[in-house]
Amino acid sequence: MKLKQGQKLLFIGDSITDCDRAKPEGEGLFGALGNGYVSLVSAFLTSTYPELGIRVVNKGISGNTVRNLKERWQADVEDQKPDWLSIMIGINDVWRQYDTPFIKEKHVYIDEYMETLSNLVKETKPNVEGLVLMTPYYIEPNPADWMRKSMDQYGAVVRQVAEENNCYFIDTQAVFNHVLENLYPASLAWDRVHPNESGHLLLARAFLNEIGFSWDKGIGEQ
Amino acid sequence: MKLKQGQKLLFIGDSITDCDRAKPEGEGLFGALGNGYVSLVSAFLTSTYPELGIRVVNKGISGNTVRNLKERWQADVEDQKPDWLSIMIGINDVWRQYDTPFIKEKHVYIDEYMETLSNLVKETKPNVEGLVLMTPYYIEPNPADWMRKSMDQYGAVVRQVAEENNCYFIDTQAVFNHVLENLYPASLAWDRVHPNESGHLLLARAFLNEIGFSWDKGIGEQ
Amino acid sequence: MKLKQGQKLLFIGDSITDCDRAKPEGEGLFGALGNGYVSLVSAFLTSTYPELGIRVVNKGISGNTVRNLKERWQADVEDQKPDWLSIMIGINDVWRQYDTPFIKEKHVYIDEYMETLSNLVKETKPNVEGLVLMTPYYIEPNPADWMRKSMDQYGAVVRQVAEENNCYFIDTQAVFNHVLENLYPASLAWDRVHPNESGHLLLARAFLNEIGFSWDKGIGEQ
Amino acid sequence: MKLKQGQKLLFIGDSITDCDRAKPEGEGLFGALGNGYVSLVSAFLTSTYPELGIRVVNKGISGNTVRNLKERWQADVEDQKPDWLSIMIGINDVWRQYDTPFIKEKHVYIDEYMETLSNLVKETKPNVEGLVLMTPYYIEPNPADWMRKSMDQYGAVVRQVAEENNCYFIDTQAVFNHVLENLYPASLAWDRVHPNESGHLLLARAFLNEIGFSWDKGIGEQ
Amino acid sequence: MKLKQGQKLLFIGDSITDCDRAKPEGEGLFGALGNGYVSLVSAFLTSTYPELGIRVVNKGISGNTVRNLKERWQADVEDQKPDWLSIMIGINDVWRQYDTPFIKEKHVYIDEYMETLSNLVKETKPNVEGLVLMTPYYIEPNPADWMRKSMDQYGAVVRQVAEENNCYFIDTQAVFNHVLENLYPASLAWDRVHPNESGHLLLARAFLNEIGFSWDKGIGEQ
Amino acid sequence: MKLKQGQKLLFIGDSITDCDRAKPEGEGLFGALGNGYVSLVSAFLTSTYPELGIRVVNKGISGNTVRNLKERWQADVEDQKPDWLSIMIGINDVWRQYDTPFIKEKHVYIDEYMETLSNLVKETKPNVEGLVLMTPYYIEPNPADWMRKSMDQYGAVVRQVAEENNCYFIDTQAVFNHVLENLYPASLAWDRVHPNESGHLLLARAFLNEIGFSWDKGIGEQ
Amino acid sequence: MKLKQGQKLLFIGDSITDCDRAKPEGEGLFGALGNGYVSLVSAFLTSTYPELGIRVVNKGISGNTVRNLKERWQADVEDQKPDWLSIMIGINDVWRQYDTPFIKEKHVYIDEYMETLSNLVKETKPNVEGLVLMTPYYIEPNPADWMRKSMDQYGAVVRQVAEENNCYFIDTQAVFNHVLENLYPASLAWDRVHPNESGHLLLARAFLNEIGFSWDKGIGEQ
Amino acid sequence: MKLKQGQKLLFIGDSITDCDRAKPEGEGLFGALGNGYVSLVSAFLTSTYPELGIRVVNKGISGNTVRNLKERWQADVEDQKPDWLSIMIGINDVWRQYDTPFIKEKHVYIDEYMETLSNLVKETKPNVEGLVLMTPYYIEPNPADWMRKSMDQYGAVVRQVAEENNCYFIDTQAVFNHVLENLYPASLAWDRVHPNESGHLLLARAFLNEIGFSWDKGIGEQ
């Protein structure tokens, strides 16, 4: 387990991260962490490693692109002084190119995406103990699909930024692809983007694996 | 993994099971399984064993005692023809004795509890492939607390019924006790009964362990 | 124009037809026809052929399969004594197989679909002056997609039933395929099923073309 | 077809244009264009000329007179830099004279109307490729009706401004008059001003005819 | 003043009478008489003739035609045993012919109207001390307007029934015509049918005049 | 009739005047004048003297005392430039002394009341053609009742201010006293302050009598 | 203290008793006893005599007269088998005679009141250990007030029935009269009927005094 | 009775004090004092000592710690110029340490608690005639419970501050302990913090005893 006693773990991202979290704080009781993978990660940590007292904060905002993250980076990341930071961004950067193709100023193309994400990571990496980069994804099994193909390219950018900056890296597309061999997208997400609980659990498990969560801990002791 | 391809797993119980599930069906998309341990169990099964196609049905109803289960047993259990059945009942049987002590006809005392639960189990055991009995619990660390003490006695009844009928058995009180060594009840449940997501995850993990869920399955393959 | 003065045109189907129509009547002022292709067809007929006084009735119900149509056929079709009847059914028959694959009793497989649709058409054809069969569709450009492939098979059934019974026939999948050469599905329907106004207009135009609507009528006269 | 690839078409006006559009943007998915003629025009353009990628923006605001348009012209027209602009204004300028005759400062009399509209058109005409002027209308067949008579005078002003500035011109009153030969006003608009879908379709068709929309395009190709 | 101490005055009719009255009773405090002419009549009687104790009951139902009155005549008129009865019906009988011209089974044509009204009056006249017939009306000044012309014909039927049965008679159309010489319909009723408070006051005054209400009573005494 | 063609009549006061009027304007269609005596006065004027075009404005605000009127006098009276002004204030000045007797800073005692009212009247009288002063009232028949006795004293102040400034004067308490000889207060106002429609009609009639309204006008002409 | 360990105390009455209690049960947690004197009595008993375990049930229904009590006596009193019964009824029996004086069938005059109340008491007295009769009241200090005078007469009936049947008796009017020497009715009840918390506390104290509640019990022990 | 004629008594605290009071004032009719012990104290004073005219003000705010009181002390205490002041604070200071143990900046530890409370008391004591300090409490009978143990320590601080500053002192924990000998916490408060009416009555009685309230006053006089 890579997180240490009393550390603060902050998640930033779009609606997949947000999931109706409490605003502005993004932490506390009564569903303040939303009802997605962030809340599941926190529940796993609290129930399995209660002695560590890991503090989880959710700063996702629905509809955000990397351009929005840049605007609120100082307030929502730097000022929070997290020990660990997890970023999952890019779905809306791509999606707007496909659902409202004529409103071009809302599109974040791949060059801007790469430069902005790279700058944010370089700026913050020295200040945190761990930085996790999660790729955007699209719950569509056909790699030739227009939007899936774009998403894969943005995912490759995330991988490259992670490697250049020595970050933890999670290929969320791969996580979903594995399940899509058996299940049709409609059973996981009504719009191939916003997953149901099964999909969020896949994201949470991938995150926990990356940070060294032990699935066996506590099992059998009870 | 003890469940087989295409089997139906039905949960019955009180508000811990219910968790705002869709009524009357209790299965399907869009939160139909509620937002508690049943939904988590289903999400674990779907995301980890998608090839098995396990069908999960939630028949919990808030406020129920074992007396209520008896009344709706034919419609909500027998008629559903589940392959696996999980029962968690008893919290309200005890709670009413402590929160409304003067309204005695709403109390289900331990003799009625034992006899009713035992009869239901005996009646249905031959018709299912697996039957899981989960004890009631109280998220209170003091074993001398009046209500905790009663709950432990009802839990002992469940253990006895499980043994006599050769059922799977989960001691949920033990699951919570383990965490209460490090955390105060208020961080898990506002009323020491209805847990937050951390608490439901504990229940889901205990259930999955009992049915042979493999935590390593699929990890690393992605 | 194939419809004659004072005739009643009745549409039956699922949510694509329903579109929040008034229930139970399904006709009248103030949005009683819903906000989909049925309402558009009626608006085209009223504004372009006001002298004909065509009466449009909407009997779509969300979530319906052909099995549901059969149950309400007497009340919602036969008793209404329409002069023209239009049927678009089958999307849910297929969709349930993909979004809730484990709940098999909600699936309407292709044999039941064909037999039921065929019987309904045979029963009613003699009583109406015109009967229009519209295929189900899926706003997905990849013909190898699992659900699109199934939908194409159900569409082929509709074509066969139309031919055997000498009905008017509309291949709605072809209508959408044409636009999907230029637009990604996300710009037409959030779930590839329920279209926005552009999609409903495509359905309305296809229907109007089939019944001999003249696009030039009235243009220039004003 | 007079609009070219990638152009932006902006509509400004009163409640007939507004129709519950998203504010402040007035474009995007999920009904952002409202549910009136603007949305229909957009749906026709998207479904019939998907390859052109015409971007439609709705800047109508309920209750507006030409005096209000003048106040928000810079922000809602000039700053938007549309390629094409369509203006339909004047109904409230007249209506207030008849429904609240004693509140005279809310009346916009014909001299102010002409001067304001003329100035706005002169100011913007050089900056757009096409400018369409639609007359106000009143869905009342009796030309001697007080309010209809006034509306006709305001309509004549629009015609004059269009001619002086070489704009496209649509006589919406004539469009409705044609249908009123067969239908009573109550079947088109509860207050003779706000039309139902049939009425909005008439406005949309008149607009599309004026900009060279081809009704046959795509028909038969599918 | 023709009403005597302690008498019950019952109004029946359509939405003009209903005006959101309490249902089913239609009398009592807190707006139970609705907010239209019935409530005004009651307020005039109570405030000017408090010593008479006239009891007013409102049995109007929105959307009713004379066909509906016939169906509920026993329960809502005969069983109530009023001393005085006032009937205003016919607007919807006519209106449906103009706003939904194609749905013919909802139209009540003039022969049915005359026969039904006449029978109801003949049946009840012997049982009441006073029976007031109010014509339907249309707040449209043009006598050549299609719907106004029809309404005048129905109004003539009411006059004839009143004369044949020796009833009190109120020509409500004449009441509105008088004001329409100075005011446009839009200032009295958004749809030329449902009047604002000025219009309801006109109806109340016409009714009160017919029953011998003294406008000077009590003035000067205070 | 003392009001002349095109004049503006403004009412200011407390909740009796307010009656849920539109804010901030207090005039226009759709109930903008509230549902009390102001709306009734306007309806009487519009329906009986439509040719005069009297414009009525309601500036009542619930809970106001004369202290509040002073604060908003410039904006709500002077800036509105009415031709006629009607003031009814004082009920809350007295009421707070009886319903919350211990919160003394909310009480407006009689000296402050007299001075403030007198100043407002003196300031505005020269700018209007007519100024009507209506006393506060209490719908309680017992003159020895504590609150009724106070209200009578405040009413005497209004009479004195009216006389000193040559204003029109209405003794609203006398109006109610007349009816209270026959009716118990509970049938007019649930709290002896806020009247039902009968009570508001009494106020409206007293006002209209004072300004020379002719009850016979138009009667018989129709 | 006259109540004994484990006894059930049932209150029946009108809105003063009801106070938004849970229906149909009228007992339990979370405000089930309403927010009036019944809830206060229960809170006093529970907090001061917790060892007695007195069970309080509220069967008040707003608007009830003694005529309504008779209709539901079997279900709401007899079937509940209370040990102690408290009745407070009569306010609506009187009130309807004053707030809706013309609707005479809703009035319960004093003969019917006496006979009905007397019969109910005679029927039930033998079945309970204690029966408390509380008079109706009117929070009006003037004994010559019409409605107060009637209420006093109904109160005298209650006293007589209590004496004849050897019941406990509470003169609630006297309780309020005492406070009205210092406070105006408006500070206790907006309509002189429904008291605020001060008024309900007066009723609760009077009841507790009658049943031998000891105000000193437990004070000083803590 | 220690309070004198016309004095103002102000309560400040957290949610136990707040109880949904009117904000910002915290006094007046219609539940402005909330529905907890403050409202009960006021009702006791008003109903038993109406001649004293004690004015009660509630300035509790849910969730407050002593840190919050300090921030609003000037506005909510000093500026209000109370004659008597009652403070009950500390529950949230402790609770946050147990329900959200990882969010440490929201915890108010005992040193800060003592210093802040002590300073506020010293600052205000000279300006008031009476100052009452109520301890925080926890409705948990087990003195070894983690949170109960902390609460007892904070309560001891309050006792010490009271003694050092010569304040009135109420040990609320002792009040609840007395009842917990007979009742389980669940029957008094769902979360062992927010009491039902029985619990608030206990607090009110303890307060009234401390200020010399006479339980016998007025009893017997009625």
TrEMBL record, chains A, B, C, D, E, F, G, H:
UniProt entry tagged with the keyword Cell inner membrane: no
Record-level Gene Ontology MF annotations: phosphatidylcholine lysophospholipase activity
Signal peptide: none
Alphabetical list of SUPFAM superfamilies matching this protein: SGNH hydrolase (SSF52266)
Every SGNH hydrolase-type esterase domain range: 11-200
Keyword Hydrolase: yes
Keyword vocabulary terms for this entry: Hydrolase
Coiled coil (UniProt feature): none
Entry-linked PANTHER family: SGNH HYDROLASE-TYPE ESTERASE DOMAIN-CONTAINING PROTEIN, THIOESTERASE 1/PROTEASE 1/LYSOPHOSPHOLIPASE L1
Name this polypeptide is given: SGNH/GDSL hydrolase family protein
Record organism: Aquibacillus salsiterrae
